[in-house]
Amino acid sequence: MNIENLEDILKNEPRYRLKQIKEAVFRDLIDDWSKASNLPLALREKLSKECPLEIKGEILKSGDGQTVKALIELDDLPAGKAGGLKIESVLMKHKDGEGTRNTVCVSSQVGCPMACKFCATGEMGFKRNLTVSEILEQVLFFARAGNKISNIVFMGMGEPFLNYENVMAAICVLNGEDSLNIGARKISISTSGVIEGIEKLAEEKLQLNLAISLHAPDDELRSELMPVNKKYPLEKVLEAVDGYIKKTSRRVMFEYLLIKGVNDSPNHARRLARIMRKPLYMVNLIKYNPAGGDFQPSDADTVERFKGILEKEGVAVTLRHRFGGEIKAACGQLAGGKNF
Ligand code: SAH
Ligand code: SF4
After folding, report:
1. pLDDT at 330 (0 to 100)
2. Cα(53) to centroid(ligand 1), Å
3. What is the mean pLDDT of residues 304-324?
4. What is the CATH number of domain 66-327?
5. Are residues 21 and 10 in contact, defined by beta-carbon separation less than 8 angstroms?
6. In this predicted model, what pLDDT tens digit does every residue of 145-167 receive, in sequence order?
7. What is the pLDDT, as a whole number, of residue 338?
8. SS3 for 336?
9. Residue 339: pLDDT above 80?
10. C-beta 209 within 6 A of ligand 2
11. Quick check: 280 and 272 in contact, CB under 8 A?
12. Averaged pLDDT, 79-86
């Protein structure tokens, strides 16, 4: 799918055309312009040529059907040539008191330049930023298959704040009433700590959720695991988060992966508590998904002990269970481009 030059094509059309088209693509979920019967034939033909709606994706289902991974091929190569870049995105279905929640975990880049040691996407290196169409098509792919999408998390491949403009433009469409109408409060962005992005997000008039990948309680360990910490050290990241909270009064989630023997001791927990005991800070402990390197997930009792220490120290903490591990569809395991 490529609708990057849609506005250009509609330049000489009446204003209401854009609304009609948004509704057709993002609300009625058409996959072919011939289905947009309220558009003039000549426009439909032009759009078919210049703004293809086809999404080249394939599905890989998990055993329990709760997690579905899609592999989407991008249009880098001329038509007919196989072997272009691919990205991965994941649909996660949760049942809770209010019914089923369908969350799409979206990629923002092909690969990632941040090179975190524990992450399969980091290992594959950086290829390029995704366009707005390429971000949107990941959501449309699952929506067209009949899933009502309720939540979006930018936790797939890539660092969203290194592709800030396109991520925000895509969010604007996802959020729009005439399109998928997903509330800003249901959209989360996770960052490895790109300070300029945190500062810019604080200025947006949107109630998005911000998550920070922390994974270590001090600079020494964090720089070892996440080279980005050398550019954006912990103290500076937390300063930017405090600025964000001051401006927005929104809660901020800190993600902390528990990796066996690396960052999961009681001492790590106590030091983490010292920097996380603040209003509107929340820690989300995540079980590590083995991603091909030397790292292993912490044992269940180590996880419980770690959580217990944070709770005792007055930190707001939750535990996220492994999800989609069996089809390599969990965070940090997405590396679709690697084999192509
Ligand atoms: N680049 C952004 C968003 C994508 S990664 C970021 O780093 O925040 C989404 C989350 O998955 C991050 O918290 C990341 O640290 C985490 N992650 C990476 N590798 C993982 C793995 N193997 N197991 C579990 N989580 C992982
Ligand atoms: Fe990039 Fe996030 Fe993976 Fe780090 S954890 S390499 S920032 S995708």
Report:
1. 61
2. 30
3. 89
4. 3.20.20.70
5. yes
6. 999 999 999 999 999 999 999 99
7. 45
8. helix
9. no
10. no
11. no
12. 72
Cβ–Cβ under 8 Å, residues 85 and 132: no
Average pLDDT of the chain is: 91
Inter-residue contact 238 to 275 (CB < 8 Å): yes
DSSP 126-149: EEEEPPHHHHHHHHHHHHHTT---
**Token couple for 308:** 């217990």
Catalytic residue among 51, 73, 88, 105: 88
Residue 192 beta carbon below 6 angstroms from any ligand 1 atom:
yes
Instruction: Say whether 331 is catalytic.
Output: yes
Taking 60 as the threshold, does the pLDDT of residue 107 lie above it? yes
Structure token pair of residue 321: 């269970």
For helices 164-175 and 132-144, the axis angle rounded to 10 degrees is 40
Per residue in 234-291, pLDDT tens? 999 999 999 999 999 999 999 999 999 999 999 999 999 999 999 999 999 998 988 8
Is 116 considered catalytic here? no
Render pLDDT for 17-71 as a digit per residue (tens, 0 to 9): 999 999 999 999 999 999 999 999 999 999 999 999 999 999 877 666 788 989 9
Per-residue tokens: 337: 């481009």
Q: Please give the pLDDT value at position 97.
A: 73
Structure tokens at 84: 């272009």
Q: Among the options 51, 116, 119, 331, which is catalytic?
A: 331
| Contact criterion met (CB below 8 Å) for 306 and 317 | no
Picking from 332, 220, 233, 212, the residue whose alpha carbon sits closest to that of residue 284 is 212
Where are the chain's structural domains? 1-54, 66-327
Q: How far apart are the first and last CA of the chain?
A: 20
Question: What would the DSSP string read from start to end of 70-115?
Answer: EEEE-S-SPTT-----EEEEEEEEEEETTEEEEEEE---EEE-TT-
Q: 1-54 sits in which CATH class?
A: mainly alpha
The full 3-state SS of 152-194, as one line of letters, equals EEECCCCCHHHHHHHHHHHHHHHHCCCCCCCCHHHEEEEECCC
